[in-house]
């Protein structure tokens, strides 16, 4: 009899646990932003008041205690004002991968103040000179955006994570911003959008920009761990400036000049 009662109790406990798990999976309110959710009074924001932009994505919106509130669809690149940033980095959800650690930001988006995770937001970087190209009465201003997640190193040293500034183009007259989609091939996997890398694998910079007929051209210089290189990033003018090709790609390894195939 005691054995039967014990089995029944165990079975009821199992059903209760299963119910909790199913409820947690269906209820988004249970989501938390950090791996070990910090005490509310330990979360500190610092005012920065900086221009930035949102990437096209579905954002998670949080309150100041890092409690999940809702999602927000951002269909295109959107300009925002970054009001403040957390003093520390945190993990999103239960993810403990160091490369997914980042800051939380308070942003002003279409009149609303929102708390979002840093991977969705890039700040307009004033440390790298802004390039400008004129063509046919239109001016294209090129900005680089700094990300708000872990870079090539943390407090201890190198961590092997990607670090980069994303390229965005503003078309004048008007106030539209565009990202440039990278060509993705077996030999070129440099992120979804064109970027300048600055991590332990490579450092890239824009040497110059110009236009030829209907094409905006960037000359990119790269320094690798044991070599260097140059390539041309070419963007065809259209309403979105949405795609690019890589040409004239060469790698310099000592006295060797190694031409690379075009990447489309």
List keywords for this structure.
1 helix; five-stranded antiparallel beta sheet; about 10% helix; about 260 residues; 19 strands; 2 domains
Topology:
Layout: H1 2-26, E1 45-54, E2 57-62, E3 68-74, E4 78-86, E5 90-91, E6 101-102, E7 104-109, E8 112-117, E9 121-124, E10 131-135, E11 138-147, E12 164-172, E13 176-179, E14 195-197, E15 202-212, E16 215-224, E17 228-236, E18 244-253, E19 256-259
Descriptive account of the structure:
9% of the residues lie in helices and 48% in strands. It has 264 residues and is mainly β. It folds into 2 domains: 30-122, no CATH class; 125-259, no CATH class. The longest helix is centred in the N-terminal third of the chain and has 25 residues, at 2-26. The termini are far apart.
In percent, how much strand structure appears in the residues?
over 45%
- Give the ordered list of helices and strands: HEEEEEEEEEEEEEEEEEEE
Query: What is the helical fraction, as a range of percent?
Result: under 10%
Number of strands: 19
Number of domains: 2
Main β-sheet description = 10 strands, antiparallel
Report, as a whole number of angstroms, the end-to-end distance. 74 Å
Mean pLDDT: 75
Rg on CA atoms, Å = 23 Å
Helix/strand class: mainly beta
Broad shape? globular
Question: Based on the structure, what is the oligomeric state of the protein chains?
Answer: single chain
Q: How many helix segments?
A: 1
Poorly predicted parts: 1-36
């Amino acid at each position: 009899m005691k054995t039967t009662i014990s089995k029944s109790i165990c079975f009821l406990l199992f059903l209760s646990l299963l119910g909790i798990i199913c409820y947690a999976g269906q209820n988004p309110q249970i989501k938390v932003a950090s791996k070990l959710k910090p005490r509310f009074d330990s979360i500190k924001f610092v005012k920065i008041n900086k221009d930035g932009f949102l990437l096209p994505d579905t954002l998670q919106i949080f309150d100041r205690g890092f409690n999940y509130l809702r999602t927000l669809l951002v269909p295109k690149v959107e300009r925002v004002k970054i009001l403040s940033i957390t003093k520390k980095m945190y993990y999103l959800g239960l993810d403990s991968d160091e490369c997914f650690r980042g800051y939380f930001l308070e942003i002003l988006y279409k009149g609303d103040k929102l708390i979002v995770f840093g991977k969705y937001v890039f700040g307009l970087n004033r440390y790298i000179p802004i390039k400008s190209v004129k063509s046919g009465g239109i001016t294209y201003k090129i900005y680089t955006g700094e990300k708000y997640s872990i870079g090539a190193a943390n407090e201890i040293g190198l961590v092997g994570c990607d670090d980069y500034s994303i390229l965005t183009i503003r078309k004048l007259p008007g106030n539209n911003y565009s990202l440039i989609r990278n060509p993705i091939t077996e030999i070129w996997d440099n992120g979804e959008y064109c970027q300048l890398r600055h991590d332990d694998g490579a450092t890239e910079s824009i040497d110059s920009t110009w236009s030829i007929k209907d094409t905006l051209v960037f000359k990119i210089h790269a320094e690798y761990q044991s070599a260097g290189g140059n390539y041309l990033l070419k963007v065809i003018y259209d309403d979105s400036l949405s795609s690019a090709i890589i040409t004239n790609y060469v790698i310099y390894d000592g006295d060797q000049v190694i031409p690379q195939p075009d990447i489309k």
